[in-house]
Amino acid sequence: MALATQDIDIAQVEYGTAGYHRHTESLSAHEIGRIRDSIDRISRQTRPEVVFEKDTEVVRAVHGCHLFDETSARLVRHPLLLGLAESIIGEPVYVYQFKVNLKQPFEGAAWPWHQDYTFWRNEDGMTDDRAVNIAVLLDDTHEGNGPLQVLPGTHELGLVETAGRAGRSGDWRQHVAADLEYTVPDDVAERLCQEYGKELIVGPAGSVFAFHPSIVHASSSNRSPDRRAMLLITYNAVSNAPRSSPRPEFLVSKDTTPVTAFAGTTL
After folding, report:
1. Which residues are 182's β-sheet partners?
2. Backbone angles phi, psi at 39, to 5 degrees
């Protein structure tokens, strides 16, 4: 489905101003069902792409599914998602990252305040933040089951102060765990929250959002009986592709071929 000119204009304005945008279109219940089935099947497999909560066998995330799963590979070519990414970036894009973050009922741990671009610049050598995260809610998401929280407008600050380790650990596991390699200190995040406000990424399953690589964001733990799964496709401008990355292919795609939309409007 091609994006209407009005939708493109709204997306570009909201994204440019706030650093995130809730799209007017959603994926259908049928499409969400197909994606859930794939992710649930992958989550039961023993493979490095499946990441667990600390010291447990509770699945926290799955990565790089588009490289080996037919439904995920088709999803990155979905005209709705790809069209939104291209309208925001303004040039051909490729899939930089694909992941699904899972907050299991009562067990899904928080993600601390951070900026994605810090990881991409420091770990992969990405020279600019001309990429976009397209998020799809796979479950109904509400305040109680650990939704993504963004600080609107903070993408315009560039990279803010980070806390934690001195230098790179070289361990990609510190980029997918609750104990992240690069975080925004709590006092800095609190000040930014007071200054910029906070928005929750909530809505019914199928809702589609876009958010900027440099926006400050986090999520709380899931304290509810409802799972919260959010699928994230990061599309990067082809001209912005890093020369190389030491991280595994399932975390950072090496194939920078521009993505093309599939024919039709549904998975």
Report:
1. 164
2. -65, -40
